[in-house]
């Protein structure tokens, strides 16, 4: 049966980075496994993908990241130990996630940047549109999840989509920043994109956060993309090339985002989810 190329069924999680901002915690534990309350960042990301009806999870890992595979696997001994006790419910959510999805993994052997990590995931994605979630950007809202908002938008636009939010101008050197023309409800057609510009060179105050929908031609573009800012292969550069050839849109998502790759963002997220759990 031919694939329906308007539906996003797979989600890629690049999770091979070193997480240097969280050393020494990330020396032996993947950054994506750091918990906000009792749940690792990556599990929040997978649950977000499930909320958008995505059931095929592809994870790009690296050396020292085995805990990720173990987390999304059955743990017979532990389950046997707590079966029938008052603690059994602690595993309900993760068991549900494991049941709903299939997981596949590939390793990025050299950490040459986010663009390179996404290209490494090509073997797991193939020739179809896919979502990308950076689990260290933790998103939350009371309605539709951010990736669900984006997969719906994809059905309408059928082109790559980046999620953006307004940032204080002085923070532009931490993000990819876009410029473009506003179309309708929060949608902007991208005309320019710059990776981590100095505030004086930033084309706007709209920064790309860790949610993307990509069309599979991005892989060929990434293969041709030269190392950019920081000597890394940047997805921002590949997306600008794609925007110039055709169309890429930016979407001002509804919801809250926490940069859990930074200590400040992580603490903020922890407080937010703690307060939410008490409500
Ligand atoms: P970051 O820019 O946050 O880098 O990557 P990092 O290495 O994880 O963290 P710091 O800056 O050293 O503290 C953004 C996302 O891209 C992935 C990371 O795992 C993270 O989810 N990534 C980055 C890769 O998978 N491979 C890379 O080569 C670079």
UniProtKB/TrEMBL annotation:
Domain Nucleotidyl transferase: from-to ranges: 15-271
InterPro entries xrefs: GalU_uridylyltTrfase_bac/arc, NTP_transferase_dom, Nucleotide-diphossugar_trans
Pfam families: NTP_transferase
Documented EC number(s): 2.7.7.9
Key words, A-Z: Nucleotidyltransferase, Transferase
GO biological-process terms attached to the record: UDP-alpha-D-glucose metabolic process
Enzyme class, spelled out: transferase
UniProt GO molecular function: UTP:glucose-1-phosphate uridylyltransferase activity
Reactions performed catalytically: alpha-D-glucose 1-phosphate + UTP + H(+) = UDP-alpha-D-glucose + diphosphate
Homology family: Belongs to the UDPGP type 2 family.
Protein function: May play a role in stationary phase survival.
Listed name of the protein: UTP--glucose-1-phosphate uridylyltransferase
Species for this entry: Sulfurimonas xiamenensis
GN (gene name): galU
């Amino acid at each position: 049966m031919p694939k329906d190329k308007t539906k996003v069924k797979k989600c890629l999680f690049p999770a091979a980075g070193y997480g240097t901002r969280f050393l020494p915690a990330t020396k032996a534990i993947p950054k994506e496994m750091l918990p906000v309350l009792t749940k690792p960042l990556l599990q929040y990301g997978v649950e977000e993908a499930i909320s958008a009806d995505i059931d095929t999870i592809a994870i790009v890992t690296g050396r020292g990241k085995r805990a990720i595979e173990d987390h999304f696997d059955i743990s017979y001994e532990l389950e046997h130990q707590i079966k029938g006790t008052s603690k059994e419910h602690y595993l309900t959510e993760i068991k549900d996630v494991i049941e709903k999805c299939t997981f596949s993994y590939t390793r990025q052997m050299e950490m040459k940047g986010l663009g390179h990590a996404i290209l490494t995931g090509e073997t797991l994605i193939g020739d179809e549109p896919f979502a990308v979630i950076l689990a260290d950007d933790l998103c939350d809202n009371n309605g539709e999840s951010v990736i669900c908002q984006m997969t719906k938008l994809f059905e309408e636009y059928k082109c790559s989509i980046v999620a953006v939010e307004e940032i204080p101008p002085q923070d532009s050197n931490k993000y990819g920043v876009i410029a473009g023309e506003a179309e309708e409800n929060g949608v902007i057609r991208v005309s320019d994109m710059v990776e981590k510009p100095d505030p004086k060179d930033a084309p706007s105050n709209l920064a790309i956060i860790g949610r993307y929908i990509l069309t599979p031609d991005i892989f060929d573009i990434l293969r041709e993309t030269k190392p950019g800012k920081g000597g890394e292969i940047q997805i921002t550069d590949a997306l600008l090339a794609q925007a110039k050839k055709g169309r890429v849109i930016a979407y001002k998502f509804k919801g809250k985002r926490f940069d859990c790759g930074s200590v400040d963002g992580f603490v903020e997220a922890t407080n937010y989810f703690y307060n939410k759990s008490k409500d």
